[in-house]
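Standup notes
- HV: blocked on the assembly model, inputs below
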Amino acid sequence: MPKNAFYAQSGGVTAVINASACGVIETARRHPARIGTVFAGRNGILGALREELIDTGAESAEDIAALRWTPGGAFGSCRYKLAALADNAREYARLIDVFRAHDIGYFFYNGGGDSQDTAHKVSLLADRLGYPVVCVGIPKTVDNDLPCTDTCPGFGSVAKYVAVSVREAALDVASMCETSTRVFILEVMGRHAGWIAAAGALAQRGPDDPPHIILLPEVPFDEAAFLARTRAAVQTRGYCVIVASEGARRADGRFLADAGGKDAFGHVQLGGVAPVLAALVRDRLGYKFHWAVADYLQRSARHIASATDVEQAHAVGRHAVELALAGRGGVMAAIARVSDSPYCWDLAEAPLAEVANVERQLPPEFIRADGFGITAAARRYLAPLIAGEAPPPFEDGLPQYAALGNALVEKKLPAFEA
Amino acid sequence: MPKNAFYAQSGGVTAVINASACGVIETARRHPARIGTVFAGRNGILGALREELIDTGAESAEDIAALRWTPGGAFGSCRYKLAALADNAREYARLIDVFRAHDIGYFFYNGGGDSQDTAHKVSLLADRLGYPVVCVGIPKTVDNDLPCTDTCPGFGSVAKYVAVSVREAALDVASMCETSTRVFILEVMGRHAGWIAAAGALAQRGPDDPPHIILLPEVPFDEAAFLARTRAAVQTRGYCVIVASEGARRADGRFLADAGGKDAFGHVQLGGVAPVLAALVRDRLGYKFHWAVADYLQRSARHIASATDVEQAHAVGRHAVELALAGRGGVMAAIARVSDSPYCWDLAEAPLAEVANVERQLPPEFIRADGFGITAAARRYLAPLIAGEAPPPFEDGLPQYAALGNALVEKKLPAFEA
């Protein structure tokens, strides 16, 4: 009898996490003798704890295929980290209970470092409890901060969004700078690692092109150098375009976004590094400025996703199933780079123990000596990740995204409070 | 002998203003017996005052064609309004001097209400001074606030950007709302008219779909009603998506963005209606929130431009030249709607005197009774404007935009201080 599979999405969603779900489900459906139903957790791992299992078998092949071009998390995701096994045996045991009740023999967890850690713990526990579950992680983070994989699906599409947006907005600023905005600041995601901000540099065709300044969390903010470089850009080119990571911070570790200002209600200001930098530019340099905060727009912009990213997201989903069928539990499906140009990549795997809870920052050799840009090595790494377009189908001018039925299977266990 | 033409871009640029330039130049080139060189003002009307005239004849047909898919203002634009004729005869006389020196017989001014006003005044003055210049306005504003035309080129593409972004970001929020963000706020442009914010409603497929709240400048902000509606959306659907016009204001006329808060430097907060609303949601409702400010990204996002908008932008450029050749000066090229569905439109013209300085807001019949959304009539008007995709060519994952040579012609007059 084939075992069922459980698939869950975890943490912040991306433009392509559903492409990984598509890869898992489509591949599983091609092996009916080995895999029964793929259950998806409603709102991620919470769905397993609460026994809220979505029967993906009820979805048509067309709807599953449409996941490939649908952003967000089709089954719901959650920010919920299982505590250490020693402190939280109850929740881990519950997972196994649910798996047992629904005859689940495969566990696919699609997320970042925390999720790979959870998958690892479930894998260990299942062994210890003598309930066989093959646990395979599927990488996902826009932050590109997982080790052991060339890149994380989700990142390439945000990188493309940022590079395209910078190229476009810079043309706007350049046209108007004589009598209007001199300094434009785009705030992007990346609280601990600067991969996304670094990708803004791909907008450049030549060394003097915008963005003129990139602020990375890896480089302590040097106010004097920042102001000098902003002034120099305005004086030589007429304007200055800045890409700032939300994680940009001072030498003492405080985020720039923690400006300590008060809003109209007397509360500490809500953050946003862009307005803080804008105030600095205004007060010290007196230039007219504009700022944008891309926020969720950047990680949900499936309309401008990287075809490479979509392909890799689907491939790691497929590969996770293939690994599981080969009995290779305790690993994460991964991408291995074969060459930069032409970009060739292969599917790979990495032990969950090595992936879990490791955060990969921009390496020093990717950061330009002055700290405000990236090196040629970084460009060689980043450029292929945004290659290719994979637009969703449009109707009446709007992308047509999947909306699944998401019917839950009947519960078999008593309720459980997560 | 053919007369030369002068073309200038004015005010905030858009994703498609260069498509209008393309329409002007391509059409002029088809009439070499009537029109000599098309000179473009470097940085708009300032280029005329300073006698900084770009020789568009030096650009290849390929580069001119590429303007059709290049955002920003290819020749530079400016925020510079000529004062009333009575107060500023000097500048108007200078324009005529420059036109005379360069044998310019056609003046095409591509901008919003102010620019149409300037074109009107130049037209009157040229008549009075006995120097014949055919003045034709070309509409352009993302704000869609010009009268006498079905829509303003530039608006349809921003509308599409906002509708697409809302649809995408809403999927992100919906996936995560169980354990993360409950309220998402997207701030869009439109200081005096709510057309752009209204277009966010096109993201909806059904009446309960996001965005759940739209804040328009035309409707005084009702804090209690806003909070009640936000709470209701979260309670019934789990989350609330809000599109807020930067021009949202209180009953006393103060912009919501003028929160009166102080930043870390003790200065009045920089504005941005989204963070103000976010603070309100946090303090009164306690929901986790995220906010985005699209700023220049929305009006430069040529990659997701509306094909209808691009076509209309090009067509009004072409039509302006056709009107000029027919001797019809003192008018603005315009779009006339023939039918909503299918959307049929025709080229038209409107007297500059009727266009100048009139600001078209959302009419009351387009605003839902509760003030937080739009009516079916508004939807019928807006929907066709975002129809169709017209992506630019991509290379290495990035849109390839034109970069013109912009060589200036030799000056013939003494310098002039604008």
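- HV (later): unblocked. Chain B touches chain A through 85 residues (CB under 8 Å). Chain B has 13 helices and 13 strands.
- Next: hand off to the docking folks.
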